[in-house]
Amino acid sequence: MPELRVIDYEGSKYSTEFWTPAREYEDRAERIALKALLPARGRRLIEIGAGAGRLGGLYLGYDEVVLMDYARSTLIEARERWGGDPRFVFVAADVYGLPFADAASDTLVMVRVMHHLVDVPKALAQLAATLRPGGTFVVEFANKRNLKSMLRYALRRQRGSPYTREPVEFVELNFDFHPAWMRDRIREAGFETRSERSVSLFRVGALKRLLGPKTLAALDGALQRPLAALAISPSQFLKCQMPGAHASSVTSGEAARRLFKCPACGATEGSEAPDAWVCANGHGWMKTDGVYDFKG
Hints:
The chain is of the alpha/beta class and 296 residues long. Helices cover 28% and strands 26% of the residues. The chain has one domain: Vaccinia Virus protein VP39 (Rossmann fold, 3-Layer(aba) Sandwich), CATH 3.40.50.150. The chain is built from nine helices and 13 strands. The strands form two sheets. Strands 8-9-5-4-1-2-3-13-12-11-10 form an eleven-stranded mixed β-sheet, with helices on both faces. A two-stranded antiparallel sheet has the order 6-7. Strand 6 and strand 7 form a beta hairpin. Helix 2 (24-37) runs parallel beside helix 8 and helix 7 crosses helix 8 (213-224).
């Protein structure tokens, strides 16, 4: 079976060329949503697609923070930003083959990643296995049924209908999703959606210049919850939960500390070496420049 296509930002300047002052509004609006949806504290949080650690400051209530991305170069940037805090762990891995033990995380975060996924159900299955019962999953996806698309379609300035359920790949490895389709996939993976936020409604250059990012983000934050049911913003944030209660036996001792699972054989027992994590079956995964590399 061929490997799934994965977007790779290795060696790119995404953190500086995409997150410019022109996107300060989007950054502020996303932080407002995350602060509202994330549990403030917990044992372990894993961010999938963390990049250069832009959102790391939101996770400081956790005992351990795992920043995972496919690109090692962006994780090196994240380590330069957060490596002085011993709570942070940096992991290069593929979302379709996560190197984390079952129920390893209290909280999962995935922002600006879903729109790059060819196989959403497979990725969600990996994430569901990683989250403990009762844990929280905060996920963002690009919404094809946003207000701008609906207006463009009504004015015949856009071919594709924003109302059809199927995902649309508008650029290679960049997908927009219908909210109902995404909620179905979330439910099928075993998650229960608890709340939603509709984010970045004012993603228009003229408005950013007219009102400024702080004012625009404050307005966005006030409307995120009231507009959530309408799902008309380009970004939709969901707070999901894995059903069940966290068993006390999992929270104590070695099981609570266990983080990794060998992508090659599935073993969760392993040992730390200065430059690697080695599973009980002898598969070694290098740790270079402070970054664990589980991509194989």
